[in-house]
What we know:
- This protein has about 500 residues and is an alpha+beta fold.
- It has 18 helices and 18 strands.
- The protein is globular and about 60 Å long.
Amino acid sequence: MTFRHCVAVDLGASSGRVMLATWDCNQRTLSLREMHRFVNALQKQDGFDVWDIDALEAEIRTGLNNVCDAGILIDSIGIDTWGVDFVLLGRNGERIGLPVSYRDSRTDGMMMRAIEQLGTATIYGRSGIQFLPFNTLYQLRALVEQQPELVSNVAHALLIPDYFSYRLTGKMNWEYTNATTTQLVNINTDNWDQHLLSWTGASPEWFGTPTHPGNVIGQWMCPQGNAIPVVAVASHDTASAVIASPLADKNAAYLSSGTWSLMGFESKTPYTSDAALAANITNEGGAEGRYRVLKNIMGLWLLQRVLKEQNITDLPALIADTEKLKACTFLINPNDDRFINPAHMSAEIQTACFEAGHAVPSSAAELARCIFDSLALLYADVLSELAALRGRPFSQLHIVGGGCQNRLLNQLCADACGITVVAGPVEASTLGNIGIQLMTLDELSNVDEFRSVVAANHRLTTFTPNPCHEIARYRRQFQQKRLTKELCA
């Protein structure tokens, strides 16, 4: 067979796309074609922030139909999405309620209760997953306590990508890479941890055994009558993005940059030491038995909200204005919980700057400058934590995903981190999704082979650190102050 046609459904927390990949088996070239793109936004219903799951399914089917209507015979389909959120199903497979978003406030206080009742060391030792207030562990407890009328009718709980695969095939699956984001999978057994699950009050019968990426879940019957395999790819979008990160060597780190920024490195073994716990490092599942040792960073969610609030549609023009401003004038901690889903992001950033004693940004460019500088400095902190954890520095940082198109942020990251940054590919999660499909179709052998294909088929841009940039000097001064404080303690 000369060509393979694989379709990736790639859903993020703010947008979704259906992408057609064409693999030339002889030339070993891989091309992408966008077949459908759509917006994903939160809806308010019954007091909860929820996902419009039916609208998303309709958009997915529109994209798949577009491919079929173009006369293309699809070899396989794969679906990846954001993590931690889930859909409840009844005994006949009917949906119960709407999936509540991780940005909803229903989990407020739940994480602290879990820590008080189970213990930090117990939760982390069993799951190896970082503490985030919206993890599924806390969402399930909130569900049981706040919506008991739903619980008695639930027979299954499927994570978002598994739900859409179920809707296409009628077959249920619990894909491993996404399952690990829940903080409910035991890091030693790769199965659900009954002790943690018991704390939530949810029934263990809601969940089937997690399966590693690469199996065929079932078949989707397209309008033309063809049965098309639906593959369980690495269904957490970051897991897919990491698969497509053309890491230069074992000492390279990655940063998946989008609504969230996720910085980490690959490892054959998890890191669950006291130091890892203190740094709140996570060990999410990856392909081929690799762990994604990483840390979540709030990412460009802050910018997305500011753009909407300020009615900014010309992002390149805003970035050009931002670049003219002095660095490190306005600073926040992007990972502060106050930024998860504030009523007004711009005002929240201004308040945070004021409370920290920094200058307060007023214009859209100043708000963007605040976000970019703050993210770059946080990237530097996290990269330093990760290097200390593994006991050796990183050779370079690969930035993938939509955020890698932001040349200013890429350069700020290189300057603040003091490391060479390689940006690209943009459609990393889509490509990683396709990569697992091609492996399942026996076109490629493993992740490393696929990464060589990505590097050969996609333009990568290198950013060299400038030690004289204002943000680099600020970072060094901050490190010196912190070291002095530690020595005097």
